[in-house]
Amino acid sequence: MDETVPPWKFRVEGSQDWRAMRTSEQAVVGPAIEVVAKAARRRFTVEYKRKIVREADGCKTSGGVGALLRREGLYSST
């Protein structure tokens, strides 16, 4: 009798490491994901802020400032 094993039976608390599983088992179960209670806010140093402002002032092409901000991961919500 060929019975498929449900994904929750692959991982028993503390008994198997995800990296030790076969590739097919990893595809079903996926990596262990740790959820952080609250994300830490980014803190920008004065030097970093000055560097970004200087680079933004030096942008000559249309859309250059937007490309700079996207590259640095800076959005209006920050």
Figure out the total of helices. Answer: 3
Mean pLDDT: 76
Count every beta strand, where a strand is a DSSP E run of 2 or more residues.
0
Q: Decide which structural class fits the backbone.
A: mainly alpha
Percent of residues in helices comes to 25-40%
The SSE string, one letter per element, is HHH
Largest sheet: number of strands, sense, barrel closure = none
What key attributes describe this structure?
78 residues, elongated, mainly alpha, single chain
Please write out the topology.
Blueprint: H1 23-29, H2 46-58, H3 64-72
Helix pairs in contact: 2-3
Report on this structure:
With 78 residues, the protein is mainly α. It contains 3 helices and no strands. The longest helix is centred in the middle third of the chain and has 13 residues, at 46-58. The protein is elongated and about 65 Å long. The N and C termini lie far apart (58 Å).
Brief digest:
The chain is mostly helical. It has helices at 23-29, 46-58, 64-72. It contains 3 helices and no strands.
